[in-house]
Specification:
Radius of gyration of chain A: 26 Å
CATH topology of the largest domain in chain B: MetI-like fold
CATH class of the largest domain in chain B: Mainly Alpha
Largest interface: A-B, 112 and 102 residues
Shape of chain A: globular
CATH superfamily of the largest domain in chain A: MetI-like
Strand content of chain A: under 5%
Radius of gyration of chain B: 28 Å
CATH topology of the largest domain in chain A: MetI-like fold
Helix content of chain B: 55-70%
Number of strands of chain B: 4
Order of helices and strands of chain B: HHEEEHHHEHHHHHHHHHH
Helix content of chain A: over 70%
Oligomer: heterodimer
Strand order of the largest sheet of chain B: 3-2-1-4
Number of helices of chain B: 15
Distance between the termini of chain A: 53 Å
Order of helices and strands of chain A: HHHHHHHHHHHHHH
CATH architecture of the largest domain in chain A: Orthogonal Bundle
Number of strands of chain A: 0
Structural class of chain B: alpha+beta
Number of domains of chain A: 2
Largest sheet of chain B: 4 strands, antiparallel
CATH class of the largest domain in chain A: Mainly Alpha
CATH superfamily of the largest domain in chain B: MetI-like
Shape of chain B: elongated
């Protein structure tokens, strides 16, 4: 509460300050005062110092101190490496991030290109394509759980079309097939958001450019590859990064549909230690170390991806 | 420019039709589940269209009792034999989602004494699963309230702090502008869980643990940056000469902001608040870490899913409540999706 008041009082003092100054020199330009932008940014700085930087630093301190509060470099990482399912969660997260990002990107690009070639009903189809991203993650989990249970709707469809003779027990999926299941559900939900970013990029592609290339006898594929793709490259980079960051942090669907430990992921493990075995000092340390590790992986993956995509651009130019 | 030939057209049509089916069919089945009664849940294979009526067959039995038959897809089965109105009423409500007084049921069934076995059709109570969700999950109603409160707090915090920063970014030139832009991107890239656990310790210190304000503070972390980006992109588009003109005519800075700048920036502020709303409304993991008693609706629904599949129709009904505002707001703000990462040149 205190901090909010702090931020608020700062804000109001800024407006007061502004007003008094402004009254003195009304016609003087608004944009000259050097300190004004910093004053306007002050609440944001204060907020991030208290509620972002402080937790981040204290989280890091937890990672590098042992249970008695002494400094340790590797003790907690040892604990993490020895924890249940850690190796598998790393492996699953890597597979999930790599495959789902590529899969979602290609589906989204295909849909974005098709839906952006204006035809009758394209707007309506776009609307339909966007529905899944609007559904709350918890609801998505229930939606698919009602399908995956033995007497659920997926088995109903499969039986109706005589694809299977006996209902499949999806909920018993383990290992790679469980990861695959999570991947498909995730693709269903997030592909629309990738598609939106790509299609807003596509709207920036000028028709004249394409027409010119077409008159000069370029094939459709060539136009797409040499004109459209380079122009929408910023959208592609944005959407892939967005997905990459989110994909590394997958957990909700895995837990809500299959339950803990069925398809272990990094963040799923964090939730496990917070939700299922809270209170134990070791589980707290493992949770801290896991979230530190996840953050490092997210940042590293983003930086590596940016490097690669930048280098490619440089080569093209 | 060019026309697609018939084969290409067919391929496109097939792809788009597949997409539409893949999106719509799961949702239809899910909605059906949310409106299903207990007996319908055990039906297999399931139908895609929810039924709004119940048909039972009633056969008169000895001692004034009635035997009730229900068709679960494999022909009529005897479910219950009774003449007790309370038992009948409870059975109809719990098993079929039909809320009809027991006396009325008995009166209806008494016709079978004259006519022999008959079929009866009753209207289902469409909202039964919703009522049941709020009745069974005992903190669901406070959780709904909490969700609304935490969303409002998040909107308030991120809008005030974020739009001030956004205004500064749009209107002024200063030294560390690019640095600030990039650091906001890094803040947004940080996994929320990463700061959730240390945040819990921080909030305990402040006495804000397990409060909606504490939760809102965490949700505001990504949203202040987002609000700053969205609003600054709008403020850039508002001509400063309008503001200058207003001040020439004697309005002070505050009046100018209230009467000129703010109305023009309203769409951006609305979009930012909807993003803030969605962050707070959709989250489960942070709520899991930062609350104890005061849970949010998404968390309650998440806990209601549990590990078994029984009673899943109530959780489904609860999540329909969860979906509706999220659905509405997402469609309103879809234009701004591009602003999510600040339009920073990556």
């Amino acid at each position: 509460m205190k901090n909010i008041k702090l931020a608020d009082s700062k804000k109001s003092s800024i407006t007061k300050l502004d007003n008094s100054k402004q009254n003195k020199r009304i016609c003087d330009t608004i944009f000259s005062k050097k300190s004004v932008p910093y004053l306007l940014l002050m609440p944001a700085f204060a907020f991030y110092a208290i509620f972002w930087l402080a937790p981040v630093i204290s989280g890091m301190m937890e990672v590098f101190t042992d249970m008695d509060g002494n400094f340790t470099l590797i003790e907690n990482f040892k604990l993490m490496f020895q924890s249940d399912l850690f190796g598998e969660s790393i492996k699953n997260t890597a597979i999930f991030a790599a495959v789902s990002v590529v899969l979602q990107y290609f589906i989204a690009l295909l849909l974005a290109v098709l839906l952006n070639s204006k035809f009758r009903g394209s707007k309506f189809l776009m609307f339909i394509a966007m529905i899944p991203m609007a559904i709350t993650p918890t609801a998505v989990a229930i939606l698919w759980k009602t399908g995956l249970i033995k007497e659920g709707w997926i088995n109903s469809i499969l039986m109706f079309f005589n694809i299977v003779k006996k209902p499949i027990v999806f909920m018993n999926a383990e290992g790679l097939s469980a990861v695959l299941l999570v991947m498909l559900i995730d693709t269903w939900t997030v592909t629309p958001s990738v598609m939106i970013i790509l299609s807003s990029g596509l709207q920036g592609v000028q028709k004249e450019l394409k027409e010119a290339a077409y008159t000069f006898g370029a094939s459709k594929w060539a136009i797409f590859k040499d004109i459209t793709l380079p122009i929408i490259k910023p959208s592609i980079i944005t959407s892939v990064i967005l997905r990459l960051i989110a994909a590394i942090q997958v957990w909700a669907i895995a837990v809500m549909v299959l339950g803990y430990g069925k398809a272990p992921f990094l963040v799923e493990r964090i939730a496990f230690y917070v939700d299922v075995v809270p209170g134990l000092p070791t589980s707290e340390k493992i949770a801290f170390t896991l979230s530190f590790t996840t953050t490092v992986i997210v940042l590293a993956a983003t930086v590596i991806y940016l490097r690669i995509s930048r280098r490619k651009t440089g080569g093209n130019n | 420019m060019d026309r697609l030939n018939t084969i290409q057209k067919t391929v496109v049509a097939i792809i788009l039709a597949t997409m539409a089916i893949v999106v719509i069919v799961p949702i239809l089945f899910f909605l059906n589940v949310a409106f299903s009664s207990d007996v319908e849940m055990s039906k297999f294979p399931k139908s895609i269209i929810p039924s709004f009526t119940l048909t039972v067959k009633v056969v008169p039995a000895d001692n004034g009792e009635y035997e009730i038959f229900y068709d679960n897809g494999e022909g009529y089965r005897s479910i219950l034999t009774t003449k007790n109105p309370i038992k009948l009423e409870n059975h109809f409500r719990r098993q079929y989602n039909v809320s009809v007084p027991g006396e009325k049921l008995l009166r209806d069934f008494s016709q079978t004494r004259i006519n022999g076995p008959m079929e009866f059709k009753y209207q289902k109570d469409i909202l039964y699963n919703f009522k049941q969700f709020f009745a069974i999950v005992n903190n669901a109603l406070p959780a709904l309230k909490n969700s609304i409160i935490v969303s409002l707090y998040t909107i308030m915090i991120s809008l005030t702090i974020g739009s001030l920063a956004g205004y500064a970014m749009a209107r002024y030139k200063f030294k560390f502008k690019e640095t600030i832009n990039v650091s906001m991107l890094i803040v947004r890239m940080f996994p929320t869980v990463g700061i959730s656990i240390p945040m819990a310790i921080l909030l305990i210190k402040f006495g804000l643990f397990d409060t909606m304000l504490g939760l809102a503070l965490l949700y505001s972390v990504p949203n202040i940056a987002l609000t700053a980006w969205i609003t600054s992109s709008i403020f850039v588009g508002i001509n400063p000469e309008l503001e200058e003109a207003s001040m020439v005519f004697g309005a002070n800075r505050f009046q100018t902001f209230m009467h000129i700048t703010l109305p023009l920036a309203l769409p951006a502020l609305a979009a930012s608040s909807m993003y803030a709303f969605l962050t707070a409304w959709n989250d489960t993991i942070s709520a899991l870490i930062l609350t104890n008693e005061n849970q949010t609706l998404a968390l309650v629904v998440y806990k209601a899913i549990g590990t078994t599949s029984s009673g899943i129709q109530y959780a489904a009904a609860g999540s329909v409540v969860l979906i509706i505002p999220a659905l509405v707001f997402t469609f309103i703000i879809r234009k701004y999706v591009n602003q999510m990462w600040g339009g920073v040149e990556l």
